[in-house]
Structure formats: C-alpha cells, structure tokens
Design goal:
The chain is mainly β. The chain has one helix at residues 38-51, and strands at residues 10-11, 14-15, 21-22, 30-33, 64-68, 74-77, 95-105, 110-111, 114-116, 141-143, 150-154, 168-170, 173-175, 179-187. A 6-stranded antiparallel β-sheet has the order 1-4-5-14-7-11, with no helix packed on it.
C-alpha cells in the first residue's frame, strides 16, 4: 500500500478553529488519502466489524496513510473536536473513534512511538513488548512503533463530550528510515466518501 501511494504524500495538515485545513509546526509528518478499492473496503469492513455491525460505512472518513521521517512528529492533540465548526454535519460530526495501525516501520527505528500521557501504564510486564516500559511512570503510555500492531480508542464519552484520556502525540523518529501509520476515523454523521 505504501509503495502504491509513493509520490502522493504531502505535508500533513491540521484543522483550524473554523474546520479549515492548514499547515502547522505542531505536525511535521506527511500524509496521503488512499482511494477506495477492494483492499481499502476490506480494511474498512474489518474496522466496522471491530466496532459493531450497526455502524454504517458512510460514517467512515477516507482511509489515510501518515509517514514520519527523522525528526518528524505530531504534538499532543485529540482526534475529537471542541469547536462547533468541526462538528457540523458538513464535516461528518465529531469523531467517535480512531483506529491506527503501523503498516511500515524500518528495522532500525528508534523513537517514533505514540504517546498517551493521560493513561496509566499497565502493570503486567508482558505489555513491555508493545509499550515503552522504560519511560517514567508519569509519562503515561507510549505504544512502540511495531509493524502490524494497531491501536484503537473511543474519542467521545456517552454524553458526546471529548475523552481527555485520548490526548496523544506522534513522537519524533530519532533514527531509522521511516514509520508509516494507517488511520481510520469513524464520525457521528455521514461522510461523503
């Protein structure tokens, strides 16, 4: 998938208060949207099945790849929005859930984890193969960039308010070639895909 999209990556953008896309120093990665084909539909089917069969495909945002090279990062942020400009039906409503997977990670990568500073680290040492157990306890949980692994979270509470525990950051890649993540977000309302 990453080879097929080679040459289509551009600087990742963030939404401003009105919902408009813009470049920002807080996000230095590169992104591309993946056109819907049989492979993408299969990925969407799996994401929908994971979340329950009552979820309509029309609530999915277009699948995207995000690529991080050396020093590239995405500072602390949420995948849900507080601004009314982001949550209108024009934008598909707010983001209910987020799913991402590490689809390509160089063997020599250091850094580049995904940090959730508000989460308490699990105590069982078996988690250390997936999260960075060498971090200070108060740093939260950092998922290691391991090719094939995925992370899922619910962005909103039952009352529709944002779940602050999902604040997260894409930490900078310290060394190694590149890390590529695949993102699939599910919105409250219909999206034009």
């Amino acid at each position: 998938m990453t080879l097929l999209r080679k040459g289509t990556f551009s600087k990742s953008e963030v939404n401003d208060e009105s919902g408009k896309q813009m470049n920002a120093t807080t996000r230095t990665s590169k992104s591309t949207t993946i056109p819907r084909d049989d492979i993408v539909r299969c990925i969407e089917d799996r994401a929908l099945a994971f979340q329950g069969f009552d979820t309509p495909r029309t609530h999915l945002e277009p699948l995207q790849l995000v690529q991080y090279g050396n020093g590239e990062k995405y500072d602390l942020h949420t995948d849900w929005f507080e601004s009314a400009g982001h949550t209108t039906s024009e934008y598909g409503g707010n983001r209910l859930t987020s799913f991402f997977a590490y689809v390509a990670v160089s063997d020599d990568i250091t850094g580049g984890g995904t940090n959730f500073p508000m989460l308490d680290p699990p105590k069982d040492e078996r988690w250390c193969q997936y999260i960075n157990c060498d971090e200070p306890w108060d740093a939260g949980v950092t998922f290691r960039p391991i090719q094939g692994n995925a992370v899922f979270w619910q962005n909103l509470h039952g009352d529709g308010s944002g779940n602050r525990a999902t604040v997260h950051a894409g930490l900078p890649v310290s060394s190694g070639k590149v890390k590529t993540e695949m993102l699939e977000d599910l919105n409250e309302d219909h999206n034009e895909v």
